[in-house]
């Protein structure tokens, strides 16, 4: 079912992109489609969660610490994962001259103008963390843990999480993919120990700082 959610999100993004492309520029259509895909993943994830027994839904969304502690831990872990990812990608591009050359040709994924940027930021910073943490850590990880040890489940879920980010295959294949797997394992541990909302906070922090860096770079 988590994979169905991801496929449904991608299909939703494709449909929205095709519809919007008739009335908007290509870059604006991409921004709206990306945000629509994140919204679709969140929506399907919520539908999956509704099918869980009531006690499992309570466990999934349970707050395991005070709001202040949840926020502080999430921001701290999110920043740590971002720094670790940046180091991994930097090392990868330094070891692979071909990757290093392609990095400079990557176009900004943010939408055009203020409206396009705000649409993309809402999808990346709000919808994506809510939906992806629900699907990959809230549902998929729980299913995998029933079949294997936690760390193997975290690694398997993180590998799927990285593979479902289609842009990892473009320009920065192996260092970006490895970075996403590391992020997935870290978020799995955070979800298990501190709960869904702490994972969402960490994920949102990572995406927000990365998006801010893109804004400053362009």
General description of the model:
The chain is mainly alpha-helical. It has one domain. 82% of the residues lie in helices and 0% in strands. The chain has helices at 2-21, 26-50, 54-60, 67-95, 97-103, 113-145, 150-163, 173-194, 196-217. The mean pLDDT is 83.
Main traits of this protein?
single chain, 218 residues, mainly alpha, 82% helix
Tell me, briefly, the overall form.
globular
Q: Specify the number of helices.
A: 9
Number of strands: 0
Helix content: over 70%
Mean pLDDT: 83
Terminal residue distance: 38 Å
Proportion of beta-strand residues: under 5%
Radius of gyration: 17 Å
The string of secondary-structure elements, in order, is: HHHHHHHHH
Total domain count: 1
The SS-based structural class is mainly alpha
Largest sheet, if any?
Answer: none
């Amino acid at each position: 079912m988590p994979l169905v959610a991801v496929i449904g999100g991608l299909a939703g993004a494709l449909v929205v992109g095709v519809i919007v492309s008739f009335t908007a520029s290509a870059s604006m259509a991409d921004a709206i489609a990306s945000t629509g895909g994140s919204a679709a993943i969140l929506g399907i994830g919520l539908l999956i969660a509704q099918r869980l027994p009531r006690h499992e839904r309570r466990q999934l969304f349970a707050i395991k610490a005070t709001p202040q502690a949840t926020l502080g831990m999430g921001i701290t872990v999110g920043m740590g994962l971002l720094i670790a990812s940046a180091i991994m990608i930097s090392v990868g591009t330094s070891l692979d001259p071909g990757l290093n050359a392609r990095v400079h040709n990557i176009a900004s994924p943010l939408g055009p103008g203020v409206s396009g940027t705000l649409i993309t930021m809402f999808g990346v910073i709000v919808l994506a963390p809510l939906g992806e943490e629900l699907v990959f850590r809230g549902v998929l990880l729980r299913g995998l843990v029933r079949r294997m040890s936690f760390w193997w489940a975290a690694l398997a879920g993180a590998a799927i999480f990285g593979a479902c980010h289609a842009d990892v295959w473009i320009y920065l294949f192996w260092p970006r993919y490895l970075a996403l797997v590391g992020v997935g394992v870290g978020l799995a541990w955070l979800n298990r120990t501190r709960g869904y909302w702490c994972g969402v906070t960490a994920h949102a922090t990572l995406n927000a700082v990365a998006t801010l860096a893109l804004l400053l770079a362009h």
